Amino acid sequence: MPRPARFRPALSRRARLGATTVAALVAGTAVFGVGQATAEHSVPRTDKEIPNLTQVQDKIKAYYGDTVTADGEHYASPHSNYARQVRGIEAKARTYLSKALARHDRAGKKSGQAKPAIVLDMDDTTLLTYNYELQVGFHYTEESQDKYLAHTDMDPVFGMNRLVNWAHAKGAEVFFLTGRKEAQRAWSVRNLKNVGYGVPLDRRHVYLKNKENPPAYLPCGATCTTVEYKSGTRKHIESLGYDVVANFGDQYSDLSGGAGDRTFKLPNPMYYLP
Q1: 19: DSSP letter
Q2: Which secondary-structure segment (H or E) carries 206?
Q3: Mean of the pLDDT values across residues 220-229?
């Protein structure tokens, strides 16, 4: 899931902290409680409708429990409000999956039944981008992301590796579906493996965006929106004989478009991806 400039005014591939957080705060949205700024594009009438950007950054750091190492790296704290919110979502997901996978197990005794599967986004759903975001000043570029991913493993989103491994052990097939480009496959797979995702990570289970050679099952080809790309790929997964019992993402565009029995939204106030 790639990203915008530090409070860049234009909504680019990732409309980051700037416009979306401003819009949400103006509208009274509890950005740091809900976990995702809304994509409102209203023009401020006066300066009083625009929050102080330094204070917005400070709130985000506080929400993640910003921890700085001796060499200046930033990490989110496992004791932060972010981590507590994630744990609550995971607990609900585990309760739901326990029942959904048990139903599939009983039905699976019959021939021709679809195999249960879960689909997960990567950035800020299974891998936490917080350190990268702080390092680049919330100013995503493809170049900075490439440089970071080539040599650095992102931490897992707190507890998600354990949830994924548990679901797989209970009989769910696990698929990763990310907006990262195909050229980042080796780095992404290495990262998932190194931080404890003990599930198959081959090409059948990890989907990245390939604009140069888009798959035939996506009619929109290289021009897919995020919703078209993600929902179209989930439909493809279901066409292979799977029932997507749960779909996890940190953006609403990860979750829209159908092809999933239930969605779980992970918190992310750092950027918005339409």
Answers
A1: I
A2: strand 206-209
A3: 96
Do 193 and 206 form a contact (C-beta atoms < 8 A)? no
Task: Read off the tokens for 114.
Answer: 């679809």
As a whole number, mean pLDDT of residues 4-24 equals 41
- As a whole number of angstroms, the distance between CA 173 and CA 200 comes to 9
Which pTM does this prediction carry?
A: 0.85
On the CB side of 159, how many CA atoms lie within 13 Å of its CA? 17
Beta-bridged to residue 127, according to DSSP, are 123, 156
Instruction: Give residue for tokens 């992102």.
Output: 154
**Phi, psi of 80, deg, nearest 5:** -75, 165
Q: How many CA atoms lie within 13 A of 75 on its CB side?
A: 15
CA distances from 160 to 120, 123, 195 (A): 10, 12, 10
Q: What CA–CA distance (Å, rounded) separates 131 from 221?
A: 33
Residue 270: pLDDT band with limits 50, 70, 90: very high
CA-to-CA distance for 238 and 256, rounded, in angstroms?
16
Residue 126 vs residue 23, higher pLDDT: 126
DSSP, res 114:
P
Q: Per-residue pLDDT averaged across 18-46, rounded?
A: 49
